[in-house]
Every structure is written in structure tokens, then in C-alpha cells.
Amino acid sequence: MPATGTARKTLRRGVVAAAALPLLIGALASCGYGSDAEKDKSADKPAPAGAEGKKLSAPEVRIGYFPNLTHATALVGIQEGLIAKELGATTLKPQTFNAGPSEIEALNGGSLDIGFIGPSPSINGYVKSKSTNLRIISGSASGGVKLVVNPDKIKTLDDLKGKKIATPQKGNTQDVAFLNWIGTKGWNVDPESGKGDVSVVRTDNKVTPDAYKQGSIDGAWVPEPTASKLVSEGAKVLLDETELWPDKKFVITHVIVSQKFLKEHPDVVEAVLSGTVKTNDWINANPDKAKASANAALKTLGGKALDPKVIDPAWPGILVTDDPLASTLKTESDWAVKAKLIQEPDLAGIYDLKILNKVLKAAGKPEVSDAGLGAK
Questions:
Q1: What stretch of H or E contains 115?
Q2: Which of 91, 142, 193, 282 has the fewest C-beta atoms under 10 angstroms from its C-beta?
């Protein structure tokens, strides 16, 4: 499981990895998690004072993201005005999504320019469009996934055999990782039904805590904050997925762009990435303020902030990073192929990191790698 390189220092705060992001199983729609996109309640972000003179090639840029802590770069960058500041006179129009497929559809349909999203829908959208509709242009977050269990029923990893363990959805990022881990134990599970030596119960993250309380599952391989919600109900963390990866890094969120927008407005893309890089720096330098900012954004978007007993333990499990950790995307794709959930995809050209590396170089930071999957 190779993992590339120069990811940023660990975010001392955690992340709500909300709806996990599925790999293609038959059709893109099978990856869905929630409702359609909603206009960001934080409203459009005009240019901050003093930036009016900065003229870019587009009057506005439409940016999509999830109201989840795994999208901390977007939450904080928009909340604090750090991305809007780099855009000058170009208006930032944020839009939130509850499902990867709906964000991909918006990007492909021309109603969205740039998006924060997970690896699986990015692979889906790229392959389904025959490499014509998007590019991954930056990293955003790593980690934030845990195996949590009922400590009365499961004491060790070997105790998982014969138990019922939830994942967010068939073929999603966490489901594929869990199926791969099961294979390393020499156990057998049918990837379609989830039946076998371990019962893999595909359960929406929103209802997983209730399923745990009712005893219909014995544990779950899930992202934050679902993992911490389960812990607040008496579950115990048995394994952090970061322990399974070299350098303890793997992609959970990255930044994608419409190829049309990238071609027509590279200066706007550069401004957005300048904002995300500065946002990640600010998050790392101000962990407590960043956590509060992200929670304030969640309250604005959803009407309710996360309880401290959930956000406090969840926050340290995520790493904000400019590095897209490209080799881990390929590894996750290989796992899905191995599980016979997808056919071998051609990922050549899915990354275009030229603008990001330009921004990083200007900031005195090391460049990042596309693991040989970059656009020519």
C-alpha cells in the first residue's frame, strides 16, 4: 500500500467524514448518500476589502463541498474568508452537497466549477466520462476512519469473525478498505451480499449509531464523526485505519475541477488553490480556532453544531494536506478491483497538479506527486 509524500503536519483536530464516497458498482447512482445540492446558507462570498482591484478571468466561481469535517479546508476557508480573499473581485459562490454523485453531476453538468470530494466518486466520474470531465488538482484531507466495536462482544481483531460490522455503503471507500482488510485475515466475504466469515452490514452513517444502540450491529468501520458518536454510546476504537497505511496517510478528500473551467480560467483555479494552501496553513497554526470555525460553519449550514464529546475526539484524527496522496488513490482503486466490485479503471490523466505545484513553489513548499497519473 504505497503512500506518497509530502503531506502536511497532522491536524490536531478531527473530522466528520460524513457520507463516505463510493466506488462505481454498475452505475454511478449506486454511490448515492443523500439529497441534492443546497445553496450554501453562508451566502455568496464577495471580495474582501482591499481586494477589489484584483481582476481575474471569471466574475464568479462555484465551489461545492460537504458539510462534514473531512471537508475542513472548505469549511474553514470559506468561513474565515481565506479563499475569497485570494479571489479578489471574483465572487465565491459556495454550494453544499450530501452525496458524491450529485456533486459529480453538478460538475459535469456545468452548474459547478470546483469541488471538494472523496476518492471514489472522483474515480467514478472520471471513468464514466471517459476521462473528459474532471481533474484532481489538489489534496485536502487524509485519515479520519476507524473501526469501533462493542467491547462486550469484541476484545481483539480476531473476534470480528462471525460478527456484524457496518460500513456506510456497498463499494464505498470504507467498505472497500474493510473488505480488503478481511482478505488479509484469510477470511471470506461475498462483496455483493456482505455475507461470509464476517457479516458486512451496509448502513447509512446517519442511522449507524441507532443500529449500534439497538444491537443490530456489533461495530462499524466508519469515518468521523460517526466513529466518535459510537464511542459516545459506549463503543471502543479497535483500529484506526491510518495504522494500515505507510506514513499513516491516505486520501479521504481532495479538490477536483471541471476540465472546461480549468482550461478557460486557470487564473481563478490558481487563486482558489492559493486560498486552500493558506487555509491549511492557518488550520495547522490555529488548531483550536480552526475547530471552532469548522463547527460554526456546520451550525450555519445545518442549524446545529457538533457536541464537544463528538467533535473533540474526532478532530485529531484528520490530516489537512495539500498533497493528494495519489498513490493511495490507486491503491484504493486496486482494492475495489480485487474485491470484484469494479473493473480495472484507466486513471491515466486523472491528476493535474501543475497549478498546485506552482502555488507551493511560490510559497517555498515542496512540490507534490501525481504518482504517474498526471495529465500530459
A1: strand 114-117
A2: 193
CA nearest to 274, candidates 361, 348, 207, 152: 361
How many distinct helices (H) and strands (E) make up the chain? 13, 12
Length of the chain: 376
Are residues 183 and 338 in contact, defined by beta-carbon separation less than 8 angstroms? yes
Instruction: Quote the Cα angle for 41-45-50, to 5°.
Output: 155
Structure confidence by residue, pLDDT tens digits, 55-64: 899 999 999 9
SS3 of 339-369: the string is CCCCCCCCCCCCECCHHHHHHHHHCCCCCCC
Each residue's pLDDT tens digit, 66-87: 888 889 999 999 999 999 999 9
Task: Return the bridge partners of 63, or none.
Answer: 94, 114
**Left (φ > 0), alpha (ψ -120 to 50) or beta: where does 285 sit?**
alpha
With b meaning 16 or more CB within 10 Å and e meaning fewer, what string describes 292-324? bbbbbbbebbeeebbeeebbebbbbbbbbbbbb
**Smallest Cα–Cα separation from 23: which of 192, 187, 193, 172?**
172
Mark residue 5 as left, alpha or beta (left: phi above 0; alpha: psi -120 to 50; beta: remaining): alpha
Residues ≥6 apart with Cβ < 8 Å to 372: none
DSSP state of 317: G
